[in-house]
Amino acid sequence: MNASWKTPVIISIGEPPVETSIGSIEAAAWALIEDWPTEEGPALDRALTTCTGVMEGKRKPDEARASFVAAASEAGILVRS
User: N or C end of the chain, less CB within 10 A?
Assistant: First the structure.
C-alpha cells in the first residue's frame, strides 16, 4: 500500500543538501533506507517499523508520517512538516 499524506514533509538531504518533499509512505521508506544521513537511532527504527506496518495494512498512514517527522528531527534534516 502506498498511501499519500495530505501535507508532505520537507527534509534537507543529500550531498550537497537539497530540500526534498516526501509525500507518501513509499517515498518515506526509500528515503529512510537509501538516503538517510544516519544508520541508527530510536526514531529511525520506529519510522522504518511504522512504514512497514502501513504497507502491510497494520498501521495508519498518519502514524508513519508522525514517526517519519520524528526521525527527520532526530537526524537534524527536518525543514518543515
Answer: N
Alpha-carbon distance of 80 to 75, in angstroms, equals 13
- Structure confidence at residue 14 (pLDDT): 84
Query: If the chain, 81 residues long, is cut into consecutive pieces of 10 residues, what is the mean pLDDT of each piece?
Result: 86 91 95 93 97 93 96 95 85
Nearest residue to 62 via CA among 19, 11, 24: 24
Phi, psi of 22 (to 5 degrees): -110, 115
Predicted pLDDT of residue 3: 83
The answer to whether the beta carbons of residues 28 and 43 sit under 8 Å apart is no
Q: Could you give the count of Cα atoms lying within 13 Å of 18 in the half-sphere of its Cβ?
A: 8
Alpha helices in 24-81, H assignment, sequence order: 25-30, 42-55, 61-75
Question: The pTM is what?
Answer: 0.93
